[in-house]
Design goal:
The longest helix is centred in the middle third of the chain and has 13 residues. The chain is elongated. It folds into two domains: 87 residues, ADP-ribosylation fold (Alpha-Beta Barrel), CATH 3.20.170; 143 residues, Nucleoside Triphosphate Pyrophosphohydrolase. With 323 residues, it is of the alpha+beta class.
């Protein structure tokens, strides 16, 4: 069966790094403006001067990465703010691999800082802008939004999945309704990995436990992973890496036994349009909407098990608000 290729790749370990400085760059790491051609030359059009500066109207991924050294990180912790000085911006990468490559080129012990950009934007503590090199930047970042400079920091691995049923009415996705502090929201089933457990096994286990499904599920595709920060009830920062999978259901189950003790109140099937509209988690919204968009444009075969993805429909670049 053909998989749903290219749905989402939030982190790309093979992504080539963007150099902070090169021979044609200005001292602050920005590319030099293009030179204009001689307007008096016949038959030649005047080239437009390239505008320098950050791109506006964009919002960053939930987590950004800053390449630094351990000594500089400790100085930032002491001062309570991450800044470069001299009026220069703090450069931020959208992938951890890119940040590590930059960090290893700096003198001293390399270190990468995890910036909770989503929280910083929500509280209006930072203004993130995207420059012409594809990097994000900010004037400064309070240490309260640098996850691994706060006391008690740890990483957490989780996995989850979206069951899908190909039926006569088209594909349907299974979601859970969760009771939160102020409201009930529709989400995807997910949970932490147990010691020694693989993300695939954890995803199937969590989906079955939270939804109360009586049968096994088959993983069709690894959709990628998303990262976001959160704070535990003990006020300790966490960086969560959530692996997501698409799972095929052989039947359209209608009787569920959701894990009420975990705040799960209901389980229901939705069309792709409904699922894309209802999913509440900001970090998962782009993933679900892209899955749904691909499903809507797919072609289901006579057995209802396969579909043909649209050529060239690669994952959209994260970091742009789709609300």
């Amino acid at each position: 069966m053909r998989g749903l290729r290219g749905i989402l790749h939030i982190e790309e370990a093979t992504r080539q790094p963007v150099s902070l400085m090169n021979d044609s760059s200005s001292p602050d790491g920005e590319p030099s403006a293009a030179h204009e051609s001689d307007p008096s030359s016949p038959g030649r059009r005047r080239k437009r001067r390239r505008t320098r500066g950050p791109r506006r109207g964009a919002c960053p991924p939930d987590i950004l990465y800053h390449a630094t050294t351990r000594d500089r990180a400790e100085r930032a912790r002491t001062r309570g703010v991450l800044e470069v000085g001299g009026g220069r911006p703090v450069f931020l990468s959208r992938t951890e691999a890119q940040a590590w490559q930059v960090a290893h080129r700096q003198p001293g012990e390399p270190m990468v800082l995890y910036i909770d950009a989503a929280r910083a934007r929500q509280l209006r503590r930072c203004r993130f802008e995207r420059n012409r090199q594809g990097l994000w930047q900010a004037g400064s970042v309070p240490v309260g939004h640098v996850l691994n400079l706060r006391p008690g920091f740890a990483e957490q691995a989780s996995a989850g999945g979206i069951p899908i049923f190909f039926g006569p009415r088209g594909p349907e996705l299974l979601m859970i309704q969760v009771a939160r502090r102020h409201r009930q929201t529709w989400e995807v089933a997910k949970g932490k990995l147990e010691p020694g457990e693989s993300p695939e096994a954890a995803a199937i286990r969590e989906v079955r436990e939270e939804m109360g499904l009586p049968v096994d599920l088959e993983i069709i595709e690894h959709l990628g992973y998303v990262r976001y920060g959160f704070t535990t009830p003990d006020r300790e920062p966490r960086l969560k890496t959530l692996h997501m999978y698409l799972m095929r259901a052989e039947e359209r189950f209608t009787e569920f036994h959701p894990a009420d003790a975990e705040g799960i109140k209901d389980v229901a099937w939705f069309t792709p349009d409904e699922a894309a509209r209802l999913v509440a988690h900001r970090s998962l919204r782009p993933l679900v909407r892209r899955v749904c968009g691909r499903l809507k444009r797919g072609v289901v075969d006579e057995n209802g098990l396969e579909w043909n993805p649209v050529p060239g429909d690669e994952a959209a670049e994260d970091g742009y608000c789709d609300d």
